[in-house]
Fold this sequence. Notes:
The chain has helices at residues 11-15, 23-33, 48-55, 87-94, 100-105, 136-150, 172-180, 199-204, 235-248; strands spanning 5-9, 38-43, 65-68, 73-78, 82-85, 114-116, 126-130, 154-159, 162-167, 189-193, 207-210, 229-230. The chain is of the alpha/beta class. The chain has two domains: 5-92 and 170-248, 3-Layer(aba) Sandwich (Rossmann fold), CATH 3.40.50; 97-167, Hypothetical Protein Ta0175, Chain: A, domain 2 (Alpha-Beta Complex).
Amino acid sequence: METTLHLISDLDGTWIPAGPDRRPLRKLEAYIASRPDLTLTFATGRSLRSALRSFGQLLRVWPRNFIVDVGTAIFHARAGGAWVENGDYAAWVGSRWDTRPLAEAGPGWLPAGIRPQPGIAAVRRLALEVESWRDVPGAQAELRERLGRLGMIADVLATGRCLDVLPQGINKGAAAAFLQGRFQPSPPVMACGDSENDIALLGMADLPVVMVDSRLDHRNRDLPWERIHRTRFPGPRGILEALLTLRCQGVAG
Ligand SMILES: [Mg+2]
């Protein structure tokens, strides 16, 4: 069946319920299962392994595609619950990721107060965090400056106290755009998110949806506020409400 809507959702703070009540998630999953014309993609800052480990027991409906590591890798669902990485995308992102300047700089190149996030071994991304004594904007600016001085071409994305160093131009939005190229014709994108690493994804979406309890607000000038639907409820209940509202308006398939 032809896809009439590509729903791309963040996980933490968006698809994943905050409390113990599973009913809104089950309702959303039932709705997704009832719409074979809808293609579901998850887009997370987590690695695939972390997402599967954390949410494997919770989720009953799985997406067709998984954008992980803040858009630096894409996996597709295969029969039997297997996930296969998209090699074309991996090669394209890899061609934009050259860490030799950092290797040549040796250990200790990181500015004071910035350290690696423990337990994240991503291939085409550096996951860092700002220590509690340092202000995030100052740390982000110094990290950008340091990378530039070393000759490392990369983007620095701040989400809370986390700093992600990503291949230039690569983020959840770039991965979503790559996936859109696989459809003929390409369907409208409805994207749901709640934090800074969702901004590029929300920006490329035809139907951007920001969660009611998100800290994103009009100070984030990169967001297309004139098009954004803000949910009335947090989590899965909010996403389902947005899907039904936008469908009533004839804009979501
Ligand atoms: Mg989130």
